[in-house]
Design a protein that fits this description.
Elements: H1 5-8, H2 21-49, H3 55-82, E1 85-93, E2 96-103, E3 106-113, H4 114-140
Antiparallel strand pairs: 1-2, 2-3
């Protein structure tokens, strides 16, 4: 069996505090953002294969979303590293995925259902879409 991460990082497990709400959000972002990015990239490739009159507009929007998601994912990764947080896929059972995390020596697991992940991905993509079109609408005014 692998050595617990707190031993590798030389942390005292008794002095470790559970992650704060902000750190939990960072961990959740590190799980959801790559999945949402994969969905947008797949949809972008699908747009490239199909010839439609508005394809260029949708493809450009997808490209903008992909760039923004990649920037957000890089920023999230930098924050995780700076706060000594690691998140790893553990296993998936019965429509649930479990992720193991180590936050400054405090180790635990997060379990998310496929339905929750799907809903979060849809929310994130919608938020990126709204951001693009809100910027465009405000520049027209």
């Amino acid at each position: 069996m692998a050595m617990p991460l707190f031993k590798v990082n030389n942390h005292n497990p008794h002095s470790c505090q559970p992650p704060a709400a902000e750190e939990l959000q960072l961990m959740q972002d590190s799980i959801i953002l790559p999945l949402a990015l994969a969905v947008v990239e797949r949809n972008s490739r699908e747009l490239d294969r199909k010839a439609r009159s508005l394809r260029a507009i949708f493809a450009k929007a997808a490209d903008i979303i992909i760039l923004k998601m990649k920037a957000d994912l890089a920023a999230n990764t930098r924050l995780l590293v700076s706060k000594s947080i690691t998140v790893c896929t553990d296993h998936g059972i019965n429509n649930k995925l479990t992720y193991h995390f180590n936050c400054r020596g405090y180790e635990d697991c997060i379990t998310l259902t496929h339905e929750y992940i799907r809903n979060e991905i849809n929310k994130r993509i919608s938020a990126y879409n709204s951001e693009i079109f809100a910027k465009h609408a405000s520049s027209d005014a």
